[in-house]
Amino acid sequence: MVNRKELRPESSPQAAYGARLRKLREERGWIQEDLAGPMECSSQHISAVETGRKPATLPFSRRADKLFGLAGTSQSFEREWREMRHGVLLEGFPEYVGYESRAVEIRLFEIGIIPGLLQTPEYAQALADGDVRRGSITADQAAERVAFLAGRQAALARERPPMMLVVLDESCVRRPVGGRAVMEAQLRRLTEFAEQPNGVLQVAPFNMGERRPFNLPVNLLTLADRSMVAYAESHAQGHVERESTAVLPLLTAYHQLQAESLSQAYSVAMIDEVRKGTP
After folding, report:
1. Exposure string (b/e) for 85-107, b if CB count within 10 Å is 16 or more?
2. DSSP state at residue 89
3. Residues 106 and 235 in one domain
4. Per-residue pLDDT for the chain (279 aa), expressed as one digit of tens each?
5. Is the domain of 57 the same as that of 113?
6. Cα–Cα distance for residue pair 111/215, rounded to 1 Å
7. Pairing of strands 163-169, 105-110
8. Exposed (0-12), middle (13-18) or buried (19+): which is 61, by Cβ within 10 Å?
9. Contact status, residue 4 vs residue 25, Cβ threshold 8 Å
10. Are 246 and 271 in a shared domain?
């Protein structure tokens, strides 16, 4: 293809939006002119959005959702546009979520808070409300964040859900969030997850000490073609990695983490003990 610009979806949320638009278009064998009519704009405008030179708008996103059959889903362009506008998601995270919804295996390690995919609505709301009180996000952004999380969770509730392997640092289950009732329900949600045939739950105890291989949360996805995607984030930025030379060492470290963590039975027993003493 002449003058085809290579995209870097990891560079910004706007670039991720454009790259996904191009991907969906090309999967259907459409050229940019095929989108111009239904999208009520020129093919030049389509090109500018795909390459990140122009931001998408809300009407543009809604027309894209109608065209690609995404309206009302967790993968809608409208949802992605709202997240970009309100700045709720870290850079790189929208790209990761696109992979997450297609994963056949999900491996998670979290420190301090319960992973989003296992959060109850009340727990998620309590975290968002805390950010509002600190002034880091607005009330509208908090609502967007909670709604986005609900969409992620719904996307995994399919006929053949992914296998989920979750390791929680002990701080996740001992850190109270939202008060007694919220925390008790959240811990109960964890034990229910451990009973599911597609779920494995382990706790990395405090006494693991320096044997814990990760000092930051880590997400590892296995896709249907057995390729892998890693996602990690700092306080200010998220990063998606697909190169096997970077992902495979993380997978090795994750296996080491599982080997050092409590078994699922002992992990559930610890969570039950914490539930009994929930402050």
Report:
1. bbebbbbbbbbbbbbbbebebbb
2. S
3. yes
4. 445 667 777 667 788 889 999 999 999 999 999 999 999 999 999 999 998 888 888 889 999 999 999 987 868 888 788 667 655 556 667 778 888 988 999 999 999 999 999 999 999 999 999 999 998 878 877 888 888 888 889 888 888 999 999 999 999 999 999 999 999 999 999 999 999 999 999 999 999 999 999 998 999 999 999 999 999 876 556 788 888 899 999 999 999 999 999 999 999 999 999 998 855
5. no
6. 8
7. parallel
8. buried
9. no
10. yes
Tell me the pTM. Answer: 0.70
Chain position carrying tokens 């959005």: 49
Using only C-alpha atoms, the chain has a radius of gyration, in whole angstroms, of 20
Do 176 and 80 lie in one domain? The reply is no
Q: What's the distance, CA 257 to chain centroid?
A: 21
Distance CA 26, CA 19 (A): 11
* Rounded-to-integer distance, Cα 271 and Cα 277, Å: 10
Alpha helical stretches, state H, the chain: 13-27, 32-39, 43-50, 58-68, 77-86, 93-100, 121-134, 139-155, 170-174, 180-194, 244-260, 264-276
Q: For residue 124, which phi and psi values (nearest 5 degrees)?
A: -60, -40
Query: By CB neighbour count within 10 A (0-12 exposed, 13-18 middle, 19+ buried), where does 185 fall?
Result: middle
| Domain membership of residue 257 as a residue range | 98-117+157-276
